[in-house]
Amino acid sequence: MSTETPVPTGTGDNRYVSVANTPEFAALRRALRRFVFPVSAAFLVWYALYVLLSAYARDFMSTKVVGHVNIALIFGLLQFVSTFLIAWLYTRYADRRVDPLADELRAKIEGSPE
Amino acid sequence: MSDITLAVGASTTRTLTLTLFVVLVAATLAITIWASRQTKSAADFYAGGRSFTGFQNGMAIGGDYMSAASFLGIAGIIALNGYDGFLYSIGFLVAWLVALLLVAELMRNSGRYTMADVLAFRMRQAPVRTAGSISTIIVSIFYLLAQMVGAGALVALLLGIKAGDTFLGMSAETAKIVTIALIGVLMIVYVTVGGMKGTTYVQIVKAFMLMLGALLLTLMVFAAFKFNLSSLLGEAAAKSGRTPPESFLQPGLRYGRDIAGNATATLASKLDLISLGLALVLGTAGLPHILIRFYTVPDSKAARKSVVWAIGIIGVFYLMTLALGFGAAALVGRQAILAQDPGGNTAAPQLAEALGKRYLGGDFGGSLLLAIIAAVAFATILAVVAGLTLASSSSLAHDLYANVIKRGQTTERQEVVVARYSAFVIGAVAIVLGIFARNLNVAFLVALAFAIAASANLPAILFSLFWKKFNTRGATWGIYAGLLSAVGIVLLSPIAWGGVSDARTPATLTAAQAKTCGVEQTSKQVSNATALFSCTTAAPIPLENPGLISIPIGFIFAAIGAITSKERNPDKYAELEARSLTGAGAH
């Protein structure tokens, strides 16, 4: 961050507002939304697909894959896998891309005025 | 094996079960008293001093969330209806991603003690807190009622008290009432004495017990099938009594049924499945007793960690319920489960008894494992009801009393006193309602609580965290419209009116049901014999789950309310955003 905006000089609540209007804050907002919005849309569509297939594609879901294990069971287990995977990916992303920005701005807001 | 407690003599099982119940109650009360010594400030009472670690809170979230409905209920649905129980567990799990990605951290940073704190941050306090509090209390009371009524029936079943039988001089009916009252008194004690700290430790203990109990049973089930999943599934299907047996392993026996020759009924059943799925996945992140758990950790990073732990714990648990359900179908059998409880709630305890006999040395082993699982189920109920009581009494004291009635002019000390009284009042109301409703079919209340959480709470929470123009009218319209539509639809649904219609096919009645409904047993007028108001009048709306209609209504009214109101406060939103994203100034 070489192009830092000056530390806001206001006190109390004003500091929040002035920090919220900096480009660094916009970058933080973008970093968070860039991950959570598309991923939320993706897992909701993926879940909706599972529910819709369970309701309307019974023959497909009933196809046996190995022994008594059918596609419905595998599809259901994949929902578990995708949930675990997204939780892990989000933690990794937030640790690396979001937390450093957030910590810096937080220090700016909470830091002493001088 | 057809009867859970007949084999060894009911007395061994009862003695063991009661001993474990007493040990459990004594242990949780000891924890509560210990926690009460460390509960001094309002932050201690409402948020456990915000001192729990991510892992501890993750366990407590699991303890708060995995209700008896999900332990015994889902295992029972799988044991009787096969695959469809899995649809429930998947919705319950995937829902946590909404909480993880969109709600938990931002809420932790911007709120203090209750759900309405986040809404009230940039809106007019009184109307928004009133709406948030009403919705919190209604969701919690419905959920609480379902747990308590379920517990009454369950304990009577676990102790093997049937109609006409007595235990310590109590009939099954008296035992139900005593159980409901006892659970009510315990939850009042946990909350008033131990506050959030005591409640959290009770939930952590319960989560450990539940995970260990489920793991033990799962390992035994797999051992019985030589760790071959396919042969477990094959045996479960073969013993399911379904034709063809394979249909037991496929979706469609319970939800979204294909009703031959009736396209309207088929459509209604499929829409009901989609509606249920929607409410499950969007409801979790709007459940007040879950949301207040995010305040018990020091910062948003710990809140994130706790949700990730919760996802791991809850996910593994639901995978195990799959093994328990199919294991019960294979090892106990459909007839034996139905003979004990037509709802299937005793499938898991019956499985425990069968496995105990097989692996822990005969009849005594069976009684022992049954007693252990019964104690786990009891712990499960206690932890969940305590969480619900705390959420509703916190909102009553912090939102309604301190910020609406007293307009913020009160001390922390007074607020906590009021919160303790509130817990007492809510507990007493729940006991009375539970006793009155003890023989009603109230299982639908859990799904309804999820639907209200998704329709009333979630739109208001998401919009206030992410939408600059959101305001007081948007929040109140969204909450009231979501709440009223969800409840209204259920009051017009087949849950309330059980008659046959184009979309509802006749049910096979038992003699007792026919008598209750006042029809011949061969009558084709009744679709739902346990309907609340009438079992012969047809429901105007054929959906049992309101989510498909009420969730869009909640979001649309919240949006219209916000757009039509002139109230805008960009600076307040900037401050909320700065706080919620950076954690600066968090409580």
TrEMBL record, chain A:
The source's superkingdom equals Bacteria
Keyword Transmembrane helix attached: yes
Q: Tell me where the transmembrane regions lie.
A: 35-57, 69-90
Q: Which UniProt keywords apply?
A: Membrane, Transmembrane, Transmembrane helix
The record's listing under PANTHER family reads: INTEGRAL MEMBRANE PROTEIN-RELATED, MEMBRANE PROTEIN
Protein name listed in UniProt: DUF485 domain-containing protein
Q: Which organism is it from?
A: Dactylosporangium aurantiacum
